Amino acid sequence: MPINIKATQVAKHRPVDYWKYNIAIIGLAASCLLTSLCVMAGPSIYPTGTTRYDPNKAYNSFVLFSGGDNIAHLIDLNGNSVHEWKDAAAHSTLINPALIQGKLGHVFVTLETIEGKGTDLVPGQLNRRISKIVGELDWDGNKVWSFGESENTPGGAAQQHHDWARLTNGNTLILANLTHRINGFKHPLLMDDVIYEVNPKGDVVWKWIASEHIDEFGFTPAELILLRNSDSPDYLHINNLKVVGNNHWFDSGDKRFNPDNLIFDSRNANFTAIIDKKTGKIVWRLGPHYPPINTEQAQNRQVPRPVDQISGQHDAHLIPENLPGAGNLLIFDNQGIAGFPIAELPFTGGSRVLEINPVTNEIVWQYTGLDSGGPSWSFRSTHISAARRLPNGNTFIDEGQSGRLFQVTPDGEIVWEYINPYARIGKDPINGRTMRNNQIYRGQPIPYDWVPPETPRSEKPVTPPDITQFHIPTTP
C-alpha cells in the first residue's frame, strides 16, 4: 500500500528531484502505451486474461489470486477460473499439503471484516475495514480453522494483514497490527506490527512486537527522529512474513539462517530482516542503507554486483530448497517512494526483481523491463507485488498495481502473461464516476499436485498478436 507521506515532507529532503521524478513518471506512463509490456500503465481499453503462453517454455501450473470481486480464483495458465473460494479481503494463500497431512486444496482467506475508520483500530483512518476473522477453508469451502473468534484474541479481532503461514508443528503464523501508544512518537496511537503464533485452538502461544526492536533495525539517530515524527501511524508497514526454511547456509554452520527463524520486510523503512525465533532478536538485516543505483544501464545490469538502492520492497524470502538459486534472497524491489529520509531513486526507473546472495549481499540475478526488450519503466509497480522462483528456473512475477501476472525465463523472455479481468468497481467520491481497479495484491503459483487431481486444466498455446496491427474495428 502507498506510503502516507505529505509532499512537503518529501520536498524537505529532495526539494527539486522529487518533483522532477513525478513529472517524468506521468509523461512516461503516457509513452508506455506504445509497448505491449506496459498495457496496464494507462490505456482505458486493453485485453484481459491470458495474453501469451508457451507451454513448452513455461512452468505449467495453476495460479491463485484474489480479484476485485472478492473471490479467490484458482486459474490454469489459459486463464480459466477452475475453482473459487469466497474471500472477504482480496488476500488468499494456498497451503502446502505437506504441512497439513497431505490434504489438498486448502486456503487461507479472510472470513470477516469490520469497520475500522474512525475507531482506535485504524489511527489516521488509513483503512476503512480490518480483518476480524481469518481462517483456513478446505476445497469445498468448509471452515477448518480460524483466528479471531476466540475470546482470547488480542484486541477482539485478528487484525491480520499481508501474510500468514502454517508451521510444521501445526500452528499458524499471523502478521497483524497492534494499535497502541509508543513512547517518543508524534502520533498518540500507532499501527504497530506484531507477529502471533497461534495454535489450532486459536490461542496465541508466541508473539513478537516490532516497536520493541527499533534499536535493532539499523537507523541512525537522525533517521530515528524522522521515523518517530512520521505523518503515517503505520510507521514501518511490514508487508511480508515468511519462515526462513531449510537452507544450505544453516547446514554449513551459519546460525542466522536457522530454518525456524522468520524473515520480514518493512516497506516504509526499506529494510529486510531475520528474527531469531528463540530470542526475538534481529540476527540478519539488509538495509535500510544502500549505495545509490548507477544510472548507466551497462553498470546497473551487470551481475554479480553489490546490492544497490532498494525501496518499498515486497515478498522477501529465501528461495526454497531444490529450486534453482536455493538459499538466495528473492525480493520484489518496487522502487516506490519510501525511506527515512526518502530514498534517492532514478526518475526514469522501473521496478526490479532481485536475487541476492544473503551472505555476500551481492545481486546475482535480476529482472527489469529491459530484460524483456522494453524500457526500464515498462515493468513498474510502486506498491504491492511479488516474485517466486519456479522449478524449471523461470520466475513468476506479480506486477501488482497493474494486475499483471507473468513468467520469465532466466534471460527475461516472457513465456506466460495474464491480465486480471476481475476488477474492483467503485465510485469516485468527488465526481461519482465509475472507478475500475485491476490490482492484484499477490499471485501464487500452485503446483498441479497441491489440489485434487480431477481439477480441470488447459495448456493450449497463446500467441500474442502483432500489436502494430491489432486494432478495434470502427463502427460502420
3D architecture notes:
The chain contains five helices and 28 strands. It has 476 residues and is mostly beta strands. The protein has one domain: 7 Propeller (Methylamine Dehydrogenase, Chain H), CATH 2.130.10. A five-stranded antiparallel sheet has the order 1-25-24-23-22, with no helix packed on it. Strand 9 and strand 10 form a beta hairpin. The longest helix has 15 residues. 44% of the residues are buried.
Instruction: Kindly report the spatial arrangement of strands forming the biggest sheet.
Output: 1-25-24-23-22
The secondary structure category is mainly beta
Strand count: 28
- Given the C-alpha coordinates, what overall shape results? globular
The CATH architecture can be given as: 7 Propeller
Strand content: 25-35%
Average pLDDT reading: 90
- CATH domain topology: Methylamine Dehydrogenase, Chain H
Indicate the radius of gyration in whole angstroms.
22 Å
Largest beta-sheet details: 5 strands, antiparallel
Write the layout of secondary structure elements.
Layout: H1 7-13, H2 17-31, E1 49-53, E2 62-66, E3 71-75, E4 81-86, E5 93-94, E6 107-115, E7 129-137, E8 143-147, E9 160-166, E10 172-180, E11 190-198, E12 204-209, H3 221-228, E13 238-243, H4 248-251, E14 262-266, E15 271-275, E16 282-286, H5 297-300, E17 305-306, E18 314-318, E19 329-333, E20 352-357, E21 362-367, E22 386-389, E23 395-399, E24 404-408, E25 414-419, E26 424-427, E27 434-437, E28 444-446
Antiparallel strand pairs: 1-25, 2-3, 2-28, 3-4, 5-6, 6-7, 7-8, 9-10, 10-11, 11-12, 13-14, 14-15, 15-16, 17-21, 18-19, 19-20, 20-21, 22-23, 23-24, 24-25, 26-27
